[in-house]
């Protein structure tokens, strides 16, 4: 599928506007301050000669799908990859590929352990949620620390 896009001259560009927990607008909710985030997708115009497709690639818990990563490298397709700290620990070879191609890959934060950032429900789809704003902050900070510990730029 990626090869068809590449053959057509398409470029995959991924950019998402993300704000850090400390920089977001806040609203009072009971005794806690709740931060509201509205992600924004920005796609650069491609023009008639270079149509574009935007996808989100999440590297959460499992192994790397080299069918995708290898095509991105081979065809020089820029991408933003949202990684978890857990994925970084389990995929040293793929992390090395991302680090070897900083011109292609923007590595962003998907949390330390992929814990749902929910404070008012104990489970979401059968998965234990963060449960508190402090736990959400720790999840975000843990993901950022895992990225910078690998020598990659601090996520946005």
Automatic annotation (TrEMBL):
Coiled coil: none annotated. GO terms for biological process: carbohydrate metabolic process. Is involved in generating a small heat-stable compound (Nod), an acylated oligomer of N-acetylglucosamine, that stimulates mitosis in various plant protoplasts. SUPFAM superfamilies: Glycoside hydrolase/deacetylase (SSF88713). Residues 51-156 form the NodB homology domain. Belongs to the polysaccharide deacetylase family. Keywords: Signal. Transmembrane segments: none annotated. This is Chitooligosaccharide deacetylase. GO terms for molecular function: hydrolase activity, acting on carbon-nitrogen (but not peptide) bonds. It comes from Brucella canis. Residues 1-21 form the signal peptide. InterPro entries: Glyco_hydro/deAcase_b/a-brl, NODB_dom. It comes from the Bacteria.
């Amino acid at each position: 599928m990626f090869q068809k896009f590449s053959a057509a001259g398409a470029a995959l560009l991924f950019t998402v506007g993300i704000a850090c927990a400390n920089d977001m607008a806040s609203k009072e909710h009971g005794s806690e301050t709740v931060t509201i985030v509205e992600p924004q997708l920005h796609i650069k115009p491609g023009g008639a000669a270079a149509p574009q497709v935007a996808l989100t690639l999440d590297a959460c818990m499992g192994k790397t799908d080299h069918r995708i990563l290898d095509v991105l490298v081979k065809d020089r397709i820029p991408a933003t990859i949202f990684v978890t700290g857990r994925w970084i620990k389990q995929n040293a070879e793929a992390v090395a590929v991302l680090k070897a191609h900083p011109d292609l890959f923007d590595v962003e934060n998907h949390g330390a352990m992929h814990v749902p950032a929910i404070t008012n429900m104990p489970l979401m789809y059968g998965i234990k949620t963060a449960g508190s704003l402090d736990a959400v902050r720790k999840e975000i900070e843990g993901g950022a620390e895992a990225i910078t510990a690998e020598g990659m730029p601090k996520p946005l």
